[in-house]
Write a structure and sequence with these properties.
Length: 249
């Protein structure tokens, strides 16, 4: 099923679809995609980071410790470890500090602490400079705390985020040469981040009418699972009322 142009319907229609999509993703993860020590819950995490955020060494893992090794032969609790394929990647080193965010939370059985987050961008996240800044700030705080993040943004860039949501989150920390630029003909963004001192970004630009690729969700870098975005999108779209389907197809 191709990606629909969600700018053609009211924000409430996408919010309803977003709820169904998050549920479909959560069910896929809990139905066997996640290793046995992990589970996914749809929830809102507000306020400070608190004691429920677990990094499992995520804060201080470093890419240079893995370079030269074959990621594909490592054994990390049943997780895929071959480096994910993406057309664009980026890396940055940051200093630690703490604060926090939400949506689908992946937790580790021992202590039930949050290790990863899946976020689907809604129109409200880009509705104002304050709304966008708040989302970007919380995303950065998660990454700096060592929480891994997968962001799905099916809305085109606005004047507030001319290079898409990744451009805002990565900001002036981009160490790539040349800096990342969102392709004009693929204005929507999927991006998987590793949290911690040295962060990686795996970026897949997409467009309306294209199929969604599966995206990595990191649990213990390089360990990750692939989230079935296309299959879960199709499942969620079955719940969209016919009134709004006619506007989208």
């Amino acid at each position: 099923m191709p990606i629909h142009d969600w700018t053609r319907v009211i924000a409430g229609t996408f919010h309803d679809f977003q709820h169904e999509w998050l549920t479909a993703i959560k069910r896929s993860l809990n139905a066997g995609l996640l290793p046995g020590d992990y589970y996914a819950m749809a929830e809102q995490i507000a306020g400070g980071l608190g004691p429920d955020v677990l990094t499992l060494g995520n804060k201080n893992w470093r890419l240079d410790e893995l370079e030269g090794e074959d990621w594909g032969i490592q054994d990390i609790g049943g997780l895929a470890t071959a480096i994910p394929k993406a057309r664009f990647t980026a890396k940055v080193e940051v200093e630690l500090y703490a604060l926090k965010q939400n949506r689908i939370a992946i937790r580790y059985r021992s202590g039930d602490e949050v290790v990863a987050i899946i976020e689907i961008i809604s129109p409200g996240n880009k509705s104002s400079r304050h709304a966008l800044d708040t989302f970007v700030k919380k995303s950065r705080e998660l990454l700096e705390a060592g929480v891994h993040v997968l962001i799905i943004d099916l809305f085109p860039p606005s004047r507030r985020d001319p290079q898409g949501i990744h451009g805002e989150i990565w900001g002036d920390t981009d160490e790539t040469d040349p800096p990342f630029e969102l392709p004009a003909d693929e204005p929507q963004t999927l991006v998987a981040y590793t949290g911690g001192l040295e962060r990686l970004a795996f970026i897949e630009p997409v467009a309306v009418a294209a199929k969604l690729p599966d995206m990595p969700l990191f649990l213990r870098p390089p360990g990750h699972v692939l989230v079935p975005l296309e299959a879960s999108y199709q499942t969620a779209f079955e719940g969209v009322p016919q009134r709004w389907r006619r506007e989208l197809v």
